[in-house]
Design brief:
The protein starts with a helix and ends with a strand. The protein has one domain. The chain has a 3-stranded antiparallel beta sheet, with no helix packed on it. α1 runs parallel beside α3. With about 100 residues, it is mainly alpha-helical. It has 3 helices and 3 strands, in the order αααβββ. The protein is about 50% helix and about 5% strand.
Length: about 100
C-alpha cells in the first residue's frame, strides 16, 4: 500500500507552484509540469513525481533568483551554473542531473 502521507506532501508542492502562477488553470499547471518532466507520467510512481515537483519548485526559485542577479545558483551548495551560451545554463554540481538545461530569454 502506498503511503497516504505522500498526498499532503505532493499537494503542498503543487500549492507552492500554483501560488506563483495563480492565473493558470489547474489543467495548464499540470500540463506545464508534464512538459517539464518530459515523461509519460501514467506509470510513474508518486515518489518520482514528488522528486520532479521538488525540482520544479527549485527551478522556479532559481528563475526568481536569476531575474534579480543574472545567474543560476544551486541553492544547496551555492555553486553557479555554467553558462553554455547567451540563454542556456547547465548545473555544475552533484545536486542536479547533468542533462538539465535552463533556458532564459
Amino acid at each position: 500500500m502506498r503511503d497516504p502521507k505522500r498526498i499532503k506532501r505532493i499537494l503542498k508542492l503543487i500549492e507552492k507552484i500554483w501560488t506563483k502562477y495563480p492565473d493558470l488553470r489547474l489543467g495548464q499547471l499540470l500540463q506545464n509540469f508534464a512538459g517539464f518532466t518530459r515523461k509519460d507520467n501514467w506509470n510513474v510512481e508518486d515518489d518520482t513525481t514528488e522528486s520532479f515537483l521538488k525540482g520544479y519548485v527549485d527551478m522556479l526559485t532559481m528563475q526568481e533568483h536569476f531575474k534579480k542577479t543574472g545567474e543560476f545558483v544551486c541553492f544547496k551548495c551555492k555553486i553557479p551554473f555554467k553558462k553554455l551560451d547567451k540563454h542556456t545554463f547547465q548545473p555544475d554540481c552533484k545536486h542536479y542531473n547533468k542533462d538539465l538545461r535552463l533556458s532564459v530569454g
